[in-house]
Design a protein that fits this description.
The complex is a heterodimer of chains A (346) and B (459). With 346 residues, chain A is mostly helical. Chain A is 71% helix and 0% strand. In chain A, helix 2 runs antiparallel to helix 6, helix 6 runs antiparallel to helix 9 and helix 7 packs parallel to helix 14. The radius of gyration of chain A is 20 Å and the shape is globular. Chain B has one domain. Helix content of chain B is 72%, strand content 1%. The two termini of chain B are 24 Å apart.
């Protein structure tokens, strides 16, 4: 794609999300969502083949439906409160519809079906933008309306997402689908604590974005989209296998890596609010996620996976530029000792 | 406490910056020095703890375990030299780094005051152990072993996290120094029963309790020698240590909640000892013997009398040294024949007489021969369980007999009789191996002269 056009489109995506995050008028928020959606379609379709066309179409249809549901909720809110300012939502029906619309945008169960298929159909870099940047806008709206969200619906969606994210990823060998199911599960964790302490949602979002960025950067570096091709990295760059190990263990939520911090804080917040069975269930379901991450580490880092002799003598092309990989690795694995710093967030 | 933790952390740059011919020398020497520093902790002036700061403390229970941990690192390094000799330099350094990382986490776990910090470090010890087992193990079953190890422990410990956080919400602080003075009885309710279960299951899985022990034979057998040593000697004791600490908070539910686990342990120790008589795999035999000894510790901790605590602490230290020594002996067999089958290498006394002496001593301490500290531990546990209920003497007596049976079976099969003809060309014992066995045995024999230091905080 022409670099100038690509930059313009990327800036439009950024602008759309910024408009969503910074507006106080519901119409502007909807406009921001639509701008974001329209601009990201060409990015999803960077490679022009039927697979990406199908993925972009699925993405467009689900996101457009969600925007329309959001618009309906906004209008019902307008009818009942007479104003367009984004504060709490004044009508329970509007709140439910809005929560469902935003869940559809995020990919929470039962609206999660588009995430694996869309992520699989697009290139790794587009998948990266889809799973990290695109989550910011809906999450910021959920943050702002969090006082008026129906607790039952949100918690049900959250727990079901953790379940689906865990079980759905078990049978996958395609890395993009694994990252998609991981995204569904993490979104579940984030929305579970939204009603109790939205700051922790933002913390989880931050750490999740860092870890997903790191994972995608590592995948892009080794140009691998399946478990099999990832298992060949020990032939070319053994260091990447160690980094994949650390980042995957961090995503699984193992102490002492920083992926444990959001889980710990969320469990703490939920137990402070007297729900004990729920965080226990959530924590145990997260072990399903850990299982397929461990399977990935087994094929990549912890064994020298059997490969044909051709793989051992691959062409050494010019290394792709991976932006900011060392700081990302450090942040996605070593942040746990900084947990006491979170007290400044009060 | 930093005088132990910081040198251990600095062992990592030491490994990475050493020259190729100096890595083993440097790391072994400096880790021996660090273990000498930790010996000063054994001077516990009173029954209260030595509080180094708000975050680290050591009391008569954790000091011997700490000394055992630091003593074991040079031994692990010595034991691993042979099987890593053919690996590239970077992989050797990675292995030593994993061992050092594990050591750091273990030291911090045994001295942590804040129970959540204890939990995080308890979980953190899983990661280097998993990497050691799956990356440097020798058979394909090691992958399954790593998964079983990781998931059994995690399933048990996630409820512990939730339980610790809810206790913190109830009582305001989880600092152990406060809790030991501030204990109130837990009111009797269903949720407190689940709280008891949540707190104890993590340590039950780690010990392991008889019904949840499936991970242990797999992990011990598939791990390389350093992994087996640290698993048997220290990681199992983490479970015992955790139980000893957390039962102070869990009265009075323990009086009735402990029954199922007591039954499982009492029955399990007989079962696992009996299975040892039918094992063909040498490491598997030692692994099941570990389960049996740890079942005694579980019984002791759940009975909660002063003598049983003394027995539990002494048994943990004694079993740590003995089990680690048995694994080293089994490994010396494995390095020569590349097989763990017991009957494949028989009659070793004829070929390696000095090693036979070490085999004899190790088997004798395993069956708790007087006056070794193994006997002191087992005897105190048997006596206190007899006072708890007279019938347990039958099971305990049967267990001691069967333990003697399989220890002697192992000794006689490997050492006595005519040697198998295909092993008459094995290499003689290295000085390194003899030094290793001596370093295991000397603390065991010396401690029998003054067992007061390992008898824990109820002495």
């Amino acid at each position: 794609m022409n670099p100038l056009i690509f930059t313009t489109i990327l800036m439009t995506v950024l602008l759309g999300t910024m408009i969503v995050m910074m507006s106080s008028h519901w119409l502007m928020i909807w406009i921001g969502f639509e701008m974001n959606l329209l601009a990201i379609i060409p990015i999803l379709m960077k490679k022009y083949n039927p697979r990406t066309m199908e993925a972009s179409t699925k993405y467009f249809l689900t996101q457009a439906t969600a925007s329309m549901l959001l618009m309906m909720a906004i209008i019902i809110n307008l009818m009942h409160s007479g104003q367009w300012t984004i504060t709490k939502v004044f009508n329970p029906t509007a709140s439910i519809i809005m929560t469902s619309a935003l869940a559809m945008k995020l990919g929470l169960t039962p609206f999660h079906f588009w995430v694996p298929e869309v992520t699989q159909g697009i290139s790794l870099t587009s998948g990266l933008i889809l799973l990290t940047w695109q989550k910011l806008a809906p999450m910021s709206i959920l943050y702002q309306i969090s006082p008026s969200i129906n607790l039952n619906i949100l918690l049900t969606m959250a727990v079901l997402s953790i379940l689906v994210g865990g079980w759905g990823g078990l049978n996958q060998t395609q890395l993009r689908k694994i990252m998609a199911y991981s995204s569904i599960a993490h979104m579940g964790w984030m929305t579970a604590v939204l009603v109790y302490n939205p700051t922790l949602t933002m913390l989880n979002m931050l750490i999740y974005i860092m870890m997903t960025l790191t994972m995608f950067m590592l995948f892009i570096h080794s140009s691998s989209t399946t478990t099999l091709s990832l298992s060949h990295t020990w032939n070319k760059t053994p260091l990447i296998t160690t980094l994949i190990l650390i980042t995957l263990l961090s995503m699984g939520g193992l102490p002492p890596l920083s992926g444990f911090m959001p889980k710990w804080m969320i469990i703490q917040e939920l137990t402070k609010n007297s729900s004990i069975i729920l965080p226990t269930l959530m924590a145990i379901m997260a072990l399903l996620n850990l299982y397929f991450y461990m399977r990935l580490t087994y094929s990549t880092s912890l064994t020298m996976f059997p490969s044909t002799n051709n793989m051992k003598m691959k062409w050494q092309f010019e290394t792709k530029r991976i932006t900011l990989l060392p700081p990302l690795i450090v942040m996605s694995s070593l942040l746990l000792p900084l947990t006491p710093m979170l007290s400044i967030l009060d | 406490m930093l005088k132990i933790i910081i040198p251990t952390i600095m062992l990592m740059p030491l490994t990475w910056l050493s020259k190729k011919n100096m890595i083993w020398i440097n790391t072994t020497t400096y880790s021996l020095l660090i273990s000498l520093i930790s010996l000063s902790l054994l001077n516990q002036p009173s029954n209260n703890s030595l509080n180094f700061s708000l975050m680290f403390f050591s009391d008569p229970l954790s000091a011997p375990l700490l000394v055992l941990t630091t003593w074991l690192l040079p031994l692990m390094l010595m034991a691993s030299q042979h099987h890593l000799s053919k690996e590239p330099l970077i992989r050797k350094k990675l292995y030593i780094t994993m061992l050092t990382m594990l050591q750091t986490f273990l030291i911090m776990t045994f001295t942590a005051t804040e129970l959540i910090s204890f939990y995080i470090l308890f979980e953190a010890t899983l990661v280097p152990t998993l990497i050691i087992i799956t990356r440097w193990g020798n058979q394909t079953e090691r992958l399954n072993a790593g998964l079983y190890f990781l998931f059994y422990t995690l399933m048990g410990s996630l409820p512990l996290l939730v339980a610790l956080i809810s206790i913190q919400n109830l009582t305001g602080s989880l600092n152990f120094l406060l809790i030991q003075y501030w204990n109130q009885a837990l009111p009797n309710s269903w949720s407190n029963i689940f709280l008891w279960l949540a707190c104890m299951m993590a340590f039950m899985v780690k010990m392991p309790l008889y019904g949840l022990h499936l991970w242990l034979p797999k992990a011990h057998v598939e791990a390389p020698i350093a992994g087996s040593m640290v698993l048997a000697a220290i990681l199992l004791k983490l479970g015992g240590y955790g139980m000893l600490r957390i039962t102070t908070m869990l009265n009075p539910q323990t009086s009735f909640m402990a029954y199922p686990f007591l039954m499982l342990s009492l029955w399990g120790m007989i079962m696992t000892s009996s299975i040892c008589l039918r094992q063909t795999d040498l490491k598997s035999l030692i692994a099941y013997s570990s389960v049996s000894h740890m079942a005694l510790v579980i019984v002791a901790v759940l009975i909660q009398t002063p003598w049983s605590y003394m027995g539990a602490t002494a048994l943990m230290i004694a079993h740590g040294l003995t089990s680690s020594m048995l694994f080293c002996l089994a490994n010396s067999n494995y390095e020569r024949t590349h097989s763990r089958t017991m009957i494949l290498a028989r009659g070793l006394q004829t070929l390696l007489p000095l090693m036979a002496a070490w085999w004899l001593l190790a088997s004798l301490t395993n069956l708790a021969l007087p006056p070794s500290i193994n006997l002191i531990g087992e005897l105190f546990v048997v006596m206190s369980s007899f006072s708890w209920s007279n019938i347990t003497i039958i099971l305990m007596g049967a267990n001691i007999t069967i333990t003697a049976l399989y220890s002697l079976y192992m000794l006689i099969t490997t050492q006595r009789g005519k040697y198998t003809h295909h092993i008459n060309s094995i290499k003689p014992s290295f000085t390194r191996e003899n030094a290793l066995m001596a370093l295991h045995m000397t603390p065991l024999l010396l401690l029998s002269l003054n067992p007061k230091i390992i008898l824990g905080f109820t002495y």
